Amino acid sequence: MKRAIVALMAVVVILIGAVFYFTKQAQDKANKVVEPITSQKSSSSIENNKNNNSSNKSTHNRAISKDNKSKEVFSNDEWMLMGYMAYARKNHNNEATAKLIEDIAQELSDDVLNIVKNSDNTYTLSNKYGSVNVEVGINQVKVTNDGITINSKIELKKTFGLYKNKLARMTAAIKSKEE
């Protein structure tokens, strides 16, 4: 009888360990964003990274540059635009990237799209259809308020990196409106 109880307890301990192991594996995979992930009806909250200051931003951009084995560095404003455009693509009939960038640039210049910089890495973008919040993280960009859209910076760079000059002009126009 004691052997049966000991054996049963051993099986329970092994099963509990297996559950924790596989749960940890699933969480680790979920935390690694490789492909864009979209959840239209998520009630998850976004943690604000309030410790991100100017010196962290430049260190952060150098780290991204080293990770991508490229000397090309994007500002948080440019990452924000890329994340927003990846999100907005669904509302622009999945347009080609060049056309999408032109449309967003036109919306900015026509004051149809308004951008408010809340902190070094958080923004609120609004138009006649509503507003979204954009948070630029270390490895990803999150767009919230219409579900949650998460894009890795690697994917954003692949999609929008060729348009760095256009993005820089767009961010310069945003900064000039802030002043």
TrEMBL record:
Residues 39-58 have a biased composition (Low complexity). This is Uncharacterized protein YxeA. Keywords: Membrane, Transmembrane, Transmembrane helix. The keyword Membrane applies. The chain crosses the membrane at residues 6-23. Residues 36-68 are annotated as: Disordered.
